[in-house]
Structure formats: structure tokens, C-alpha cells
Amino acid sequence: MSTKHLFALLNSHIEGDVEQFLSIALQVAAQEARQGHAEEAEKLKRLVQKARNQQRSGRPASGQTPIPLARPRGELQGLVESTYPKVTLASMVLSENVRERLSRIVRQQQERTRLRDHGQAPTTHMLLVGPPGTGKTMTASALAGELHLPLFTVRLEALFSRYFGETAAKLRLLFDQIAQMRGVYLLDEFDAIGSHRGDPNDVGEIRRVLNSVLAFMEEPNSTDSLVLAATNHVGILDEALARRFDEVIEYSYPDGQAARAILERRLGNFKLSGSWSSVESALDGLSQGELVRAADAVVKDAILEGGSKVLPNALGRALQNRQTLKGKFRRR
Fold this sequence. Notes:
Blueprint lengths: L2 H13 L2 H17 L3 H20 L22 E4 L12 H15 L1 H6 L7 E5 L6 H12 L3 E4 L11 H15 L3 E4 L16 H14 L8 E6 L7 H4 L4 E4 L5 H12 L3 E2 L15 H17 L4 E2 L1 H20 L1
Parallel strand pairs: 2-5, 2-6, 3-4, 4-5, 7-8
Antiparallel strand pairs: 1-3
Helix pairs in contact: 1-2, 2-3, 7-8, 10-11, 11-12
């Protein structure tokens, strides 16, 4: 073990950052493997996995925030926002296909040591595509919640700099954190850096960023972080980049049955006082996010008016307002 790793281990121990401590231990394991000490490396990996299993079984009760909370440090503080989501896949209304694929990824992450015993690696890079408001961002939170990991949301706009080389340096910091600190990393609006190389409107800095990301996708992920890239515009992504994702999951607007399930869940104790058939025509083409906002609007009115139920015509108006607003933006 190098002096650098020893200092890092002691520092993380002093600060009480268990996740960072275990991540550094994995770096040491990777170093041992590169030096041909496969047996020692495997022992270290198993010890880290055992420690994480104990953490998971002894995590705080529901409603409490795990301590310590992993936070980005130094220059990463302006690039990455960290949270510890409590939502899970069960709280989402998903198609069976999407739910099954996400559940499979969670299981792979939970049993990654077993996979490695057979020469396989868990899924670590995912591309989420679909219209705005269809659940891509919430998926990142749900996966973090399922795995009891921090969610790191990357502010892509903060990556770019007018100074040559500074953007690449920031990317290196981000890639190092992903490799060293296990978590779920969300790169939202990924098309900002993943657009076609050679596009007439492209600039050199964006092209360099894309090349850096392509190289990063080939690097080993020693901590098994989940990297999620989300985009509303899959058509403009560079094909070479899209091919490097382990999974590409597509989201779409909910059908009538799913839309009703979303509304019922969001209305909670405020049941609809009439038939759902009266609002069905207003559901078509609305995203999950738009349905949630419509439900919230009528619940707020019901609370202020002292009611215990939601009237169908009130919900219908709220849904129609979302349709009208969506139509105005679509025409632009």
C-alpha cells in the first residue's frame, strides 16, 4: 500500500467517512491486482463487501438520514450536489418492462461479488431517454434509495470553462470521484456534452469534452458506482457514446391505466368523488410530472376549502390546464 493511500485512509477514518474509507480500500485492492497479487486483491474486495453488507443491515431507521453523508469536496462542491434519497422503485408507476430492467440492475449491484466470482461485472453505465417529466430523474433517486447510496447530481453547465484545459481538469476530478466513491451519479441533460462530433455548430471545447467522456466510459469502475446519463433528445447523441452504455432504458408517456394510477397515488386520502371516465379524455399525452402537478393543484384547493374529496370537474380543469400549457410550448 502506498503512503498516499495510507494518508487517505487515516484522513477518512478521522472524518468518520466510512464510504470513503471503503472506497480507498478498493483502490488498494485494484493496485494489488495490477501488481499480480490477485489473491490479496480478492480478499480485500470481500472484506469491503462484508463491511458494506453490515452497514446495510444496520442502517438507521426510516426517516433518519444516514451518517456520515457522503459529500463532494474541494472543487467538486461546485460541480456535484449530493443527497440521500428515500424513494424506491415501489413508489414509481413504471411499465413492467422498465420495472423489470431496473430491478435486475439493483440485484446485480447488490450481488456484484457473486457476479465477479464468475468473471462478470454488474451494470454500471445507463442511458435514460424519453420526454421531459417521464421519470428519468426520479429513477436516479429510486436506484440510490434501493441501494442505500448517495445520489450525486452533476451540474453539466458548471463543467464548461472558457480557459483551455480547465474543462478537462474538472472532468478528471469528476471521473476520479466516480471511481473512488461509490454512489449513483446523474448526468442530466446529457445531450449538452454528448452531441454528434463534427456537427457544424460544434465547438472545439465540446468536442474535447465528448472525447474525454468516451475515454472515461472505457475506464474500470473500482467502486461499482452507477452512472446514469439522462436526455430528452436521444437523436442528437453521438453514436459512439451511446454504444458504450450497458443499458439504454426508454421512458414514455403513461397510458390511461398508468395515468390513473399516478393520480390516485398522488391524491392520497383525497379520493375522487365521481367517475374517472369524466376525466379520461384529459389524460392523453400528459407526462408523469404533469399529472402530479395537476393532482397537487386540486389537493391544495380541497385542503383550503375544507373538503375531504376531489370533484371530477375540478380535476378535469386542472388536467386541461396542463394540456393547454403543454400545447403552447409545443407550438414554439
